[in-house]
Amino acid sequence: MLIDKSWYDELKLGQIQNVQAVSGGDINLAFKVVSDTGEYFLKVQPNNNEGFFDHEIESLNLINSVANAPKVIRSGTFQDNGYLVLDYIHFGTGSQYDLGRLVAKMHQRHSLRFGLGHDVLNAKNPKINTWRANWGDFYIQQRLNVLINEVQKKGLWNDDRDKLMRQFEEKLTDYYQVHPITPSLMHGDLWNGNVGFQQNHQPILFDPDVFFGDREMDIAMTLLFGGFNEEFYQGYQDLYPLDKDWQRRVPWYQTYYLLAHLNLFGETYGASFNNTLRQSVEN
Known about the structure:
Layout: H1 8-11, E1 16-22, E2 29-35, E3 38-46, H2 54-64, E4 72-78, E5 81-87, H3 96-107, H4 135-153, H5 159-178, E6 184-186, E7 195-197, E8 203-205, E9 211-213, H6 215-222, H7 230-239, H8 250-265, H9 270-282
Antiparallel strand pairs: 1-2, 2-3, 3-5, 4-5, 6-9, 7-8
Helix pairs in contact: 3-7, 4-5, 4-8, 5-9, 6-8, 8-9
């Protein structure tokens, strides 16, 4: 797909000088747009409309209310293509300590309940975000069970996994009935590919999938694939300390992310999911 001159008036970015295709993931087409007013990052969702980007816009705006993420310029629909324009980020280097503090600042934005008020169904891993007062109920019914249903459709579920999952969910129910959680603004996909640093060394968060949940879930994701060093966790703890036994619950949340990868990529992640689920039950 080409962004030709027919797009220029639609984008309203001034006198456009150059449009170059760039890497933008496996969901959207992506372009760097250079104009006399600045540089922009353009995402295009072919054969769709701007509503496709509603959740991403909400996510970025929520994070920018307390932390730092790409700024939303505008969105729209043009020639049966949904699009989203963000400011263009030039990358640099920075401090993992500062990155940890940035994530802690995000988590310090709270809500009275868990969820977001609307579902995200246009993703490969759907999210049900109906507001709930109890975190255990939310996590089990609106995260774990939703993905189990998707995995079952693909023939990737079995009796052993089901037995372990029911034991795990019973454990979660019992635990969170007596251990209340304060809902925090969550990134939702906090792996090392979704963080970075600007040229001024300021840390920045990308591609969020926000909702209000247990902040330990984001932290568990940072530990799943690596890329965050001890300075990151020190920066986080210095600003917003976690409960002293938070490490024990890391497998509880990595179970969800590995279930999501099982849904996306199949049995490649089956053994890792089984091991983490078993650890969650036994820990």
